[in-house]
Structure prediction request, 208 residues.
Amino acid sequence: MRVIKGAVLVAATAILLFLAAGAKADTVTFSTAACFSTGCTPTGAGSSITPVPGYTVSYTPVSSRTVDANPSTTGGLGYFQLSGIGATPAALAGISFALQVMQSLPTSGTDIFSAVLQGSFYSNNSTAYAVFANPSFTLGNVNYTLQNLGPGGTLRLNDPSSPFGLTTVSANISMTPVAEPSELSLLGVGMLALAVLTKKFALRLPSH
Prediction:
């Protein structure tokens, strides 16, 4: 009886640890950085440009964010902000933009969403937008796909008056589960304990 109780305890503990390890693996931690102009180096402190005097386009990244990607979730990657006062539109003629994602969990990795700013804006009107060339990428087993994009990967940028000129950049974050060797070992221990239980119960059954 003690052997059976011990096997039950071992099996239950191993399987619970396996499930807990799998749940932990769904955690994704990342930060972002950004910059404007061709060949620029993204910075986590944010970046801004002045297309014409009195008008500014800025981007504020996220310093660190942890999300549960089981099975997927939406995570903010930062936001654009248009600002300026005037009746003459500020043109955004082909300004390059880079948004870098730096992932630390479950694995380390870095990649960049590349875009070009087009259109124009002024104090209470905007035809400005960012055109993303690559709306998705994968870091390890985690996929990042930009949301709220229009045809051709376009993201419309709100004018300075609505709401405060902010346009959030969000991504759908999902991951493909990958069992680690230690997790497989836990599952193996649990299955072995269950096999021992099954065999002992079979031996205790009366034969006919």
